[in-house]
Amino acid sequence: MRIFGVTGWKNSGKTGLVERLVAELTVRGYSVSTVKHAHHSFDVDHPGRDSYRHRSAGAQEVVLSSFNRWTIMHELRAEKEARLDELLAKMAPVDIIIVEGFKSEPIDKIECFRTEARHPVIYPNDPHILAIASDTPMPDADRPVFDLSDTASIADFVIERSGLTR
């Protein structure tokens, strides 16, 4: 499996780019999965639901399954947060996994940058950032810069750099 990251600060356009890349790569015939890092607590379950009750009772893992999807929830219960490589090892094989976030992971990635977000660029301090997707020209950048909305060109770059083949 190929792995390629999309990184950047909050409100830089990461999720929108990942969404568009998944759609573009899928249309081109590739199988794609994603991993998203959240810096906040989240829950995909709701109080009162059977699966929530199972977790609240102390279940380490709960699998929820229906005719159109399944999910597995793993409670950390004072364990350390899972590393990216541990998460990737649990995933089914696909052509490429797009990783959103995980700024410090040593994986090839593209940085999203939006002027209005008012954050500094990350790329000068991360050799794994191979390109930038920006809403503004960046003539001083020492790597390729794509228009943040040019999904097709960004997808071409991801395909080339990750070594995807048909």
Q: Which secondary structure elements does this structure contain, and how are they paired or packed?
A:
Elements: E1 2-7, H1 14-27, E2 32-36, H2 50-56, E3 61-65, E4 70-74, H3 84-89, E5 96-100, E6 109-113, E7 129-134, E8 145-147, H4 151-162
Parallel strand pairs: 1-5, 1-6, 2-5, 6-7, 7-8
Antiparallel strand pairs: 3-4
Helix pairs in contact: 1-4
Primary descriptors:
two-stranded antiparallel ribbon, 24% strand, 166 residues
Provide a compact summary of the structure.
With 166 residues, this protein is an alpha/beta fold.
What does this structure look like?
By secondary structure, the protein is of the alpha/beta class. The protein has one domain: Rossmann fold. Helices cover 23% and strands 24% of the residues. It has 4 helices and 8 strands. A hairpin with a 4-residue loop joins strand 3 (61-65) and strand 4 (70-74).
Tell me the strand order in the biggest sheet: 2-5-1-6-7-8
Percentage of residues in strands: 15-25%
Distance between the termini: 13 Å
Radius of gyration: 18 Å
Ranges with pLDDT <50 over ≥5 residues? none
CATH-assigned fold name: Rossmann fold
Supply the CATH class. Alpha Beta
Report on the biggest sheet: 6 strands, parallel
Approximate helicity band: 10-25%
What is the general shape?
globular
* Total domain count: 1
Mean pLDDT across residues: 92
Number of helices: 4
CATH homologous superfamily assignment? P-loop containing nucleotide triphosphate hydrolases
SS-based class: alpha/beta
Number of E-state strands: 8
The appropriate CATH architecture is 3-Layer(aba) Sandwich
Order of helices and strands: EHEHEEHEEEEH
